[in-house]
TrEMBL record, chain A:
GO molecular function ontology, one term from the record: ATP hydrolysis activity
Keyword Magnesium: no
Highest taxon listed in the record's lineage: Bacteria
InterPro entries: AAA+_ATPase (IPR003593), ABC_transporter-like_ATP-bd (IPR003439), ABC_transporter-like_CS (IPR017871), P-loop_NTPase (IPR027417)
Organism: Rufibacter hautae
The keyword Calcium is assigned to this record: no
PANTHER family hit by this protein: INTERMEMBRANE PHOSPHOLIPID TRANSPORT SYSTEM ATP-BINDING PROTEIN MLAF, PROTEIN TRIGALACTOSYLDIACYLGLYCEROL 3, CHLOROPLASTIC
Record-given protein name: ATP-binding cassette domain-containing protein
Automatic annotation (TrEMBL), chain B:
Ribosomal protein listed as a keyword: no
Superkingdom of the source species: Bacteria
Transmembrane segments: 33-60, 133-158, 178-201
Identification of the protein by name: ABC transporter permease
GO cellular component terms listed in the entry, alphabetical order: ATP-binding cassette (ABC) transporter complex
Keywords in alphabetical order: Membrane, Transmembrane, Transmembrane helix
Record's keyword annotation contains Transcription: no
Listed InterPro entries: Permease_MalE
Length: 268, 242
């Protein structure tokens, strides 16, 4: 479990994060939801240590991460896997080398063990035949899958995904979301996904934290998100036309149900 | 001063929690091949022609019948060893290698590859930049020595083919009043220039922010700043070491 408490971050006098606190559970898809520019990615970068928060604490399974000794930070970092928005595959390396890279740098595994692990990870994401390709030869979805394979290669305990399905077609986006969900449950990983895609949240999300202008406005299970009374969250959810239409359908159905019930009562 | 301070902090970060010697060695060799092999052709062309032009121009200016023609060979040698080979080669390398280093690191930065290394717990500055500087230390002196030979050879060809002086006169000039320390001086300069080009270009690339436009700007700044630093260091080295 990852716990964050009272995280503040300011860039050039602009307050980007304003006292964010929350828990991210193991084996669950923890979604960080919000519109662009609300501080989701900055919060994620604070959690993984790429950005130092001005104030607040971050603990990984009870171990303090931010402001701790370098050795302890390094030890925790070696359990972290991250899927970046643009995949961040190393251009000069093949797919095999990309996935092998963290094993080569961070473990004492022999070459043959590393290659076995690379094959296993690539097979897990359905890319076992793409090992010798360069990142430039891959499609956007394939790059994301290689990114996931690289993230899970060193048996990560914590997986962070920064907008994993951005720039992908809807079908590929679903595949990536499904893959992240399966891996999270299979290995009991603490996964945090930054997204503004409501489909991902509703279909694959477990716990959701909604950020708005650097503040946490709502937190709860994804199944209850449609019942919220938070205006900003409702505005966000129903800014999407399809969601708005779905809401209208829900309202019409609800009204029809109400009318049915009323007419039944009248008949009685 | 703020930039200079940031540059010093950047240099200090290169040696903090560095990678294992095996990884550093392998990365240095890879970078040396990239910097060295790819630059041999341009260094060869530039130095050969500079030697040739130097010979022709000295010959043009040397009209006094009392000065022996072999002086041309002597002057080509001195100019090549003391100034042209180390400085011009380093300026050429600042353009070729410096822009490549800054562009490569800048692209890695904006595509989050540097962040990916940091998340893995790897010191990205040490992993990416230190081998480039080590490789430059290794390769620049080699290229400067190559440039010295080719520049002097270019002078020999130009002098012989144009009829300015005979091959024998040129070689006599080359062998007269040779000071071995000048070679040491040129090699010291090449190491200083290697550090400046690799470190300044890496700094510009490593801290790139934004998009493709900023990567281009970082490359341009890397070359400009490296060339200025080379010229200043050239003057300082000459004052201190000669």
């Amino acid at each position: 479990m990852i716990e964050i408490h009272n995280i503040h971050k300011t860039f050039n006098g602009v307050k980007v994060l304003n006292g964010i606190s929350g828990n991210f559970e193991s084996g669950k898809m923890n979604m960080l939801l919000g519109a662009s520019g609300t501080g989701k990615s900055v919060l994620l970068k604070c959690i993984v240590g790429l950005v130092k928060p001005d104030l607040g604490s971050i603990t990984y399974d009870g171990r303090i991460f931010a402001n701790n000794k370098l050795d302890i930070k390094q030890e925790i970092r070696r359990k972290i896997g991250m899927l970046f928005q643009g995949s961040a595959l190393f251009d000069s390396m093949t797919v095999n080398e990309n996935v092998e890279f963290p094993l080569r740098m961070l473990s004492d595994m022999s070459k043959s063990d590393r290659l076995d692990r690379v094959q296993f990870c690539l097979k897990r994401v359905g890319l076992e035949k793409a090992g010798n390709k360069m990142p430039s030869e891959l499609s956007g979805g394939m790059k994301k899958r290689v990114g996931i394979a690289r993230a899970i290669a060193p048996n990560c305990t914590y997986l962070f995904c920064d907008e994993p399905n951005s720039g992908l077609d809807p079908l590929t986006a679903i595949t990536i979301d499904e893959l992240i969900k399966e891996i999270t449950q299979e290995y009991n990983i603490t996964t945090i996904v930054v997204t503004h895609d409501m489909n991902s949240v509703l279909e694959y999300g477990d716990n959701v934290m909604f950020l708005y202008k650097g503040h946490k406005l709502w937190e709860g299970h994804s199944s209850t998100i449609m019942d919220t009374n938070v205006k900003e969250l409702n505005d966000f959810i129903f800014s999407n036309r399809l969601m708005r239409d779905a809401k209208k359908v829900d309202q019409i159905e609800a009204e029809e149900r109400l009318e049915d019930e009323q007419s039944r009562e009248e008949k009685r | 001063m703020k930039t200079f301070g940031a540059f010093l902090l950047f240099l200090s970060s290169l040696v903090k929690r560095g990678e294992s010697p095996r990884i550093l060695f392998n990365r240095t060799i890879d970078e040396a091949i990239l910097i060295g092999i790819d630059s041999v052709f341009i260094v060869a062309v530039v130095s050969t022609f500079i030697g040739a032009v130097t010979c022709v121009q000295i010959s043009y200016n040397l009209t006094n019948a009392l000065i022996p023609r072999s002086t041309i060979g002597f002057m080509v040698r001195e100019m090549t060893i003391l100034e042209l080979a180390p400085t011009i080669t380093s300026i050429v390398l600042a353009g070729k290698v410096g822009s490549s280093i800054a562009g490569g690191l800048g692209t890695m930065r904006i595509t989050e590859q540097v962040d990916a290394l940091e998340v893995m717990g790897i010191n990205s500055a040490s992993y990416l930049v230190l081998p480039k500087i080590m490789a430059a230390f290794l390769v620049f002196p080699m290229l400067v020595i190559t440039a010295m030979f080719l520049s002097i050879f270019g002078g020999y060809l130009a002098g012989s083919l144009s009829g300015a002086l005979s091959g024998q006169e040129y070689i006599t000039g080359l062998r007269s009043d040779f000071i071995a320390y000048n070679i040491t001086f040129a090699l010291i300069k090449s190491v200083v220039f290697a550090f400046l080009v690799a470190a300044i270009s890496s700094y510009q690339g490593y801290f790139t922010e934004g998009g493709a436009l900023e990567v281009g700007r970082a490359s341009t700044k890397a070359v400009t700043n490296s060339v200025i630093a080379i010229l200043i260091a050239d003057f300082v080295c000459a004052q201190l070491l000669l």
